[in-house]
Design a protein that fits this description.
The complex is a heterodimer.
Chain A lengths: L17 H13 L2 H23 L3 E4 L2 E4 L4 H20 L6 H8 L3 H31 L1 H5 L3 H28 L3 H19 L3 H4 L3 H8 L12 H25 L3
Antiparallel strand pairs in A: 1-2
Chain B lengths: L1 E10 L2 E11 L4 E5 L6 H8 L7 E6 L10 H4 E4 L11 H11 L4 H10 L15 H13 L5 E5 L7 H16 L3 E5 L3 H7 L2 E6 L2 E7 H5 L5 H9 L8
Parallel strand pairs in B: 3-7, 3-8, 5-6, 6-7
Antiparallel strand pairs in B: 1-2, 1-4, 8-9
Helix pairs in contact in B: 3-4, 4-5
Classes of the chains: A mainly alpha, B alpha/beta.
The complex binds adenosine-5'-triphosphate and magnesium ion.
Chain lengths: ~260, ~240
């Protein structure tokens, strides 16, 4: 350590603004290696699935014969869960190494801090979802995209909406769980283990779960007989996101560090 | 100036902080001493607005921490259980902290050099040694050139050279008219750094005053500490 610096005159003090906290939150996310890793996995897997679905090179055995990958909603939506971890890490990393206490010392107003982090997490997720989704989507729907069909555009927007809303659900969940691991485990396990087990017993309930609502929105339901329509799917998914964020906000403002 | 007035913090039926009152004045290094579990970190967390007090007040320059307009330019803190995400690089950790309070990027470099981490600035914190992490925490506390420094066991993990640096630095910092409050277990270290002392045990103040007043009638600060806290500590070693 070097000799102590001589005392200086205090520098002119500029007021701390909400924008400063937003900028700080942005640095937090983009300097997190896990966020970049999640982005790479999501776009890589999305592109790969787009190619497979487009060429129909692989079919998966189903009860009624082989199913083309393009009809397997759960598989096609799998990259979204890698993508969701960007928001989950953004929120959950506060609870790693005791960063939250540093964050609160820098921005003591818990409402302000929560709002800033949520804004940045949602904005970066929205911006990142475009490069994450676009290559795979264009490859899979190349004919429709080249013909500038309206349906191709709507389908793309639906996919972006699904990515964003699932990210918000993950963000809120991470704040409530005070970790990144629990929400990722639950969000990933639910569609593959919990939903299939419940589907035969409680189909009316399962269709309201986030993953199933997202598949309805994307017109790729697992069980078309009981599934919601695309609009209802969007509404249900948005309701989950709102509930998750609202619960997280309440918990965050009341919690002790 | 730091004012703690009748501060209490109860966890279920544990009175971690029980009606503590003391002040830390500008121009002095105030040592905050007490055995493990005495309530030092709990007091400092309330002072920083991280936890809510059960009753009483903790003020900095007459204000609650959360009401400060420029928190990091007013108060620099090193707290127990507060630190960087291990995967982040040290420079990135300091950069977001600086950005959140409109502190220049140049200052990030300055504090890194000041604590001797200039060379290691681009390494991930999980590859840091204990002492390096501690130095990073001190660098973060100094970012805003604050009027008040609150350090919870700052010399934890530091080598002799680092300890000497902290001692000189804090004395000079206080000599320039600023307020320094630090907790420590190292009595000889504290005796060489602090000029005012507050000793707490089981959440209550057992002695406070200038170093000379608290040590009066005892050979050293350490014997004073044991005399004041020793026979009342819960677990026996
Ligand atoms: N979040 C918490 N929930 C319940 N009890 C707590 C909590 N934090 C601290 N305590 C209790 O409060 C008491 C004071 O703890 P504190 O960490 O303030 O002590 P300390 O003086 O900093 O000790 P040390 O020297 O070991 O750092 C202890 O009995 C501890 O168990
Ligand atoms: Mg402590």
């Amino acid at each position: 350590m070097s000799a102590p610096a001589p005392t200086r005159k205090p520098r002119p003090v500029a007021a701390v603004r909400f924008g400063d906290i937003l900028a700080a939150e942005r640095i937090k996310i983009i300097t997190l290696p896990a966020a970049w890793f999640a982005m790479a996995v999501a776009s890589g897997a999305g592109t790969l699935l787009g190619i497979i679905a487009a060429t129909d090179a692989v079919r998966i055995a189903g009860p009624g014969g082989p199913i083309p990958v393009a009809r397997l909603g759960t598989l096609l939506l799998a990259p979204a869960y890698a993508f969701v971890s960007i928001a989950v890490f953004a929120a959950g990393s506060e609870y790693r190494g005791g960063q939250l206490r540093v964050s609160l010392a820098a921005a003591p107003d818990r409402n302000r801090l929560f709002a800033a982090k949520l804004t940045v997490s949602a904005t970066l997720s929205l911006v990142a979802s475009i490069p994450a989704v676009l290559p795979g989507y264009v490859l899979q729907h190349s004919a429709a995209v080249h013909a500038w069909e309206r349906g191709a555009f709507v389908g793309f927007l639906a996919l972006i909406a699904a990515y964003l809303l699932l990210s918000l659900i993950g963000h809120g969940f991470a704040v409530i769980a005070k970790s990144a691991i629990t929400p990722l485990a639950v969000l990933f396990i639910a569609p593959f283990l919990i939903s299939p087990a419940l589907r035969s017993i409680l189909p009316q309930v399962v269709r309201f779960l986030p993953h199933e609502a997202a598949l309805s929105l994307l017109k790729l339901p697992v069980d078309p007989a009981t599934a919601l329509g695309p609009r209802a799917g969007l509404l249900v998914l948005a309701a989950w996101a709102a509930a998750s964020v609202a619960a997280a906000w309440t918990v965050f403002v009341r919690a002790e560090s | 100036m730091i004012e703690i007035k009748g501060l209490s913090k109860h966890y279920r039926n544990n009175r971690a902080v029980d009606d503590i009152t003391f002040t830390a004045e500008p121009g002095h290094v105030t040592g905050f001493l007490g055995p493990n579990g005495a309530g030092k970190s709990s007091t400092l967390r309330i002072l920083l607005g991280l936890d809510a007090a059960t009753s009483g007040q903790a003020l900095i320059g007459g204000k609650r921490y959360r009401d400060l307009r420029h928190p990091l330019r007013t108060v620099g803190a090193l707290l127990d259980g507060a630190g960087p995400v291990p995967e982040r690089r040290a420079i990135d950790h300091l950069s977001w902290i600086a950005q959140s309070n409109r502190i220049s990027r140049g200052r990030v470099r300055e504090v890194l050099d000041l604590v001797g981490l200039g060379e290691a600035a681009r390494r991930r914190v999980k590859k840091y040694s204990l002492g390096m992490k501690q130095r990073l925490g001190i660098a973060a506390a100094l970012l805003g050139e604050p009027e008040v420094l609150i350090l919870d066991e700052p010399v934890n993990g530091l080598d002799p050279d680092g300890i000497r640096w902290v001692r000189t630095f804090l004395r000079d910092y206080a000599a320039a008219g600023r307020t320094v409050l630090l907790s420590s277990h190292l009595m000889t270290e504290m005796a060489g750094t602090a000029d005012a002392v507050v000793i707490i045990n089981r959440g209550r103040v057992v002695s406070q005053g200038s170093l000379a007043e608290v040590t009066a009638g005892h050979a050293t600060l350490e014997t004073a500490f044991f005399a004041l806290t020793g026979d009342r500590i819960g677990p026996r070693w």
